[in-house]
């Protein structure tokens, strides 16, 4: 696969910057050319059979796909045979709907991939399996008892958020509303949107205004990450936490979201004490809001464990790393290299 990109990388040098989606699509086209029959990862579902939701794409999404097609031609023109534009629109729409984000044990982004057979699973906000990665392999493990004949559900999205936000995300990326038990009962929403216990509680209108503010600041921060300095990003986090804290409890998911972003900035600038302070506030509510075997909870225990170790608090570090391992042994499997790595960290300390 590297041959596909090597000459192009040499030609463009520093200007070689196709997006991950473009690179992935180029590789799919190359693979389909060299391997026209089904691959071993298409036993149940072929890439050509992927759902594209082409009829549901709005103008903005179509424009983004045309930009990707232009980049594909720009960076790969000498090395690929292309189908026509209409077929490329379908392929990019299929990749957008069926792609997987690959992350490491701390949920740092590594790349994108497609796993056709794994993409066959439907979504639920109370999933009974978790998908993890070992090199270029996707592994699916049960995190609940599954009866014979029972459907297997994974989760396509981050499950921290309340029902309305989860379904906004599902509609935007996958074009459906979820009708799982959690979305119908909304039983976790009250805890996830916990309001400060004040003598004079905030009005429903004040709460709604703050939820609207929280959603806007989350989007503002997402955009700001591309061009603002760490100091400026931390200021956005601190100001928004201060403002939201007048209405929301620390365990409110919008507070947790901004704390998590602040923790990320602290880690980036190597402010270990600052990162630890945020992590300590996050971990308990995370354990309550997420399902039992959550990679988000495992990665937070892992980050905390490594921070404690770096700050010479071995007792707390060992305890946190063991909590991470307990979840990861179920989610990743006991023989996963990540687990061996963490156990080695425990021995070395």
Automatic annotation (TrEMBL):
<keyword id="KW-0963">Cytoplasm</keyword>
<dbReference type="InterPro" id="IPR011990">
    <property type="entry name" value="TPR-like_helical_dom_sf"/>
</dbReference>
<keyword id="KW-0949">S-adenosyl-L-methionine</keyword>
<dbReference type="InterPro" id="IPR046341">
    <property type="entry name" value="SET_dom_sf"/>
</dbReference>
<dbReference type="GO" id="GO:0032259">
    <property type="term" value="P:methylation"/>
</dbReference>
<dbReference type="InterPro" id="IPR050869">
    <property type="entry name" value="H3K4_H4K5_MeTrfase"/>
</dbReference>
<protein>
    <recommendedName>
        <fullName>[histone H3]-lysine(4) N-trimethyltransferase</fullName>
        <ecNumber>2.1.1.354</ecNumber>
    </recommendedName>
</protein>
<dbReference type="InterPro" id="IPR001214">
    <property type="entry name" value="SET_dom"/>
</dbReference>
<feature type="domain" description="SET">
    <location>
        <begin position="43"/>
        <end position="157"/>
    </location>
</feature>
<dbReference type="Pfam" id="PF00856">
    <property type="entry name" value="SET"/>
</dbReference>
<keyword id="KW-0489">Methyltransferase</keyword>
<dbReference type="GO" id="GO:0140999">
    <property type="term" value="F:histone H3K4 trimethyltransferase activity"/>
</dbReference>
<keyword id="KW-0808">Transferase</keyword>
<dbReference type="GO" id="GO:0005634">
    <property type="term" value="C:nucleus"/>
</dbReference>
<dbReference type="GO" id="GO:0005737">
    <property type="term" value="C:cytoplasm"/>
</dbReference>
């Amino acid at each position: 696969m590297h041959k596909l990109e090597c000459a192009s990388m040499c030609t463009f040098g520093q200007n070689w910057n196709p997006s991950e989606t473009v690179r992935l699509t180029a590789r799919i086209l190359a693979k389909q050319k060299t391997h026209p029959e089904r691959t071993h990862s298409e036993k149940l579902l072929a890439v050509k059979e992927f759902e594209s939701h082409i009829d549901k794409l709005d103008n903005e999404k179509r424009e983004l796909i045309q930009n990707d097609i232009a980049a594909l031609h720009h960076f790969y023109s000498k090395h690929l045979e292309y189908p026509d534009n209409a077929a490329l629109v379908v392929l990019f729409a299929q990749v957008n709907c069926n792609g997987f984000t690959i992350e490491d044990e701390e949920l740092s982004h590594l790349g994108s991939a497609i796993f056709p057979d794994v993409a066959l699973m439907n979504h639920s906000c109370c999933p009974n399996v978790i998908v993890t990665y070992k090199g270029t392999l996707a592994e699916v493990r049960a995190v609940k008892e599954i009866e014979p004949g029972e459907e297997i559900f994974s989760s396509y999205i981050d499950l921290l958020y309340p029902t309305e936000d989860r379904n906004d995300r599902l509609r935007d990326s996958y074009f459906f509303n979820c009708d799982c038990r959690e979305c119908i009962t909304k039983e976790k929403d009250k805890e996830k949107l916990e309001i400060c216990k004040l003598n004079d509680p905030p009005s429903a209108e004040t709460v709604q205004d703050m939820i609207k503010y929280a959603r806007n600041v989350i989007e503002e921060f997402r955009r700001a990450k591309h061009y603002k300095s760490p100091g400026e990003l931390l200021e956005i986090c601190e100001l928004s936490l201060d403002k939201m804290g007048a209405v929301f409890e620390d365990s409110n998911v919008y507070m947790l979201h901004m704390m998590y972003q602040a923790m990320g900035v602290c880690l980036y600038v190597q402010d270990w004490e600052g990162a630890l302070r945020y992590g300590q506030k996050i971990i308990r509510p995370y354990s309550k809001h997420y399902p039992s075997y959550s990679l988000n909870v495992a990665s937070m225990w892992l980050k905390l464990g490594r921070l404690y170790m770096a700050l010479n608090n071995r007792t707390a570090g060992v305890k946190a790393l063991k909590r991470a391992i307990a979840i990861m042994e179920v989610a990743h499997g006991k023989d996963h290299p990540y687990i061996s790595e963490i156990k080695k960290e425990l021995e070395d300390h």
